[in-house]
Amino acid sequence: MKAIHFGAGNIGRGFIGKLLADAGIHVTFADVNEAIVNKLKTDTQYDVKVVGEKCEIQTVKNVSAVSSLSDDLIQLIANVDIITTAVGPNVLDIIAKSIADGLNVRAANNNHSPLNIIACENMVRGTSHLKEQVYQYLDEQTAHFCDNFVGFVDSAVDRIVPPAEPSDNILDVTVESFSEWIVDKTQFKGEIPAISGMETTDNLMAFVERKLFTLNTGHCITAYLGCLNGYNTIKEAIEDASIRADVTLAMQQSGEVLVQRYGFDKEKHAAYINKILSRFANPYLVDEVDRVGRQPIRKLGKNDRLVKPLNGTIEYQSDNSALLKGIAAALKYQNSSDPQAEELQEYLQTNGVRNTLAHYADLDKDSKEAREVESIFQIL
């Protein structure tokens, strides 16, 4: 089998690209970074440092690369079996045109072999969003072809990949030992490929929200509280007993929403929370709070990691004190190199806490929750 993976950054090389290659699939990375593309072409392999209870170097082989701007990419899309992405939610719209061009060639060549496209991004139903963008560039005949032979498979992904450590080789990457890649088995065309590390489900949203409400919620609250307390890394922040208590409670409160909504087993979910806390404290991962906290406007969106679980607690009338504190801490986040942080602080200074929550989080400015966030904000 052959695959194209959009995004040859740390996450692409250290997570999805690695799982595909480990499964014996030839992976061609598509990226705009010429240095990385050329190095992958030359070396056809790279090392991944996997860190957990111990450190292990694993070599990823059988890989190549192509420029995302090259015509060669279009021809590759016309012939591969799998397309995956790890480019960031904002870039999906950009690569949609290239994917559509490849699908047009595929349809013209009458290539009826099943092709499955999986966006592996930190967003809900990212592949469905990508499909909408791709279909804008297809004529009616190609769209009908894709309906029959191209699967757009939504997924949930989870692996912490910190910024690269200093190395003589730009391809080397460090990842944690834990990884989770769950795909919607109802959306595949043809036979589902056997890839170790890829799990299938017919209830994807339960796992999408489990990850969003637990890892993502806990991660960003750790970062925002860590920033307020002068810590530089997630590990330093989570080792502060007060922050750990707040983050744990926030994940328990978001977890109650999952228990109510999807019937998760309480004891198993408590174990999942403890696993995530141990991942935050991984001594081999140097993950800076500014990296995790960046783009606070996106993270305060009504369908993202802070406000969506809060809205769940409102729906089920359950406790949300720690989630409210996390939102207040997000409003305090300052980072002069992050345009979203700058915009958020400017709006906050002019309009106040409750109007800011109404504007960015779609929370009723007169609600009990907005008033409580305002009170916490004044105390922090």
Explain the overall architecture:
- The chain has 380 residues and is of the alpha/beta class.
- It folds into two domains: 2-201, Rossmann fold (3-Layer(aba) Sandwich); 205-379, N-(1-d-carboxylethyl)-l-norvaline Dehydrogenase, domain 2, CATH 1.10.1040.10.
- The chain is 53% helix and 16% strand.
- It is built from 17 helices and twelve strands.
- The chain has helices at 10-22, 34-43, 71-77, 89-108, 126-135, 140-149, 204-228, 234-238, 241-262, 266-280, 289-293, 296-299, 307-316, 321-331, 339-351, 353-361, 368-379; strands at 2-6, 26-31, 45-51, 55-61, 63-67, 82-85, 115-119, 150-152, 155-158, 173-176, 180-184, 198-201.
- It has a six-stranded parallel beta sheet with strand order 5-2-1-6-7-8, sandwiched between helices. A three-stranded mixed beta sheet has the order 4-3-10, with helices on one face. The chain has a three-stranded mixed beta sheet with strand order 9-11-12, covered by helices on one side.
- The longest helix has 25 residues, at 204-228.
- The protein starts with a strand and ends with a helix.
- The mean pLDDT is 96.
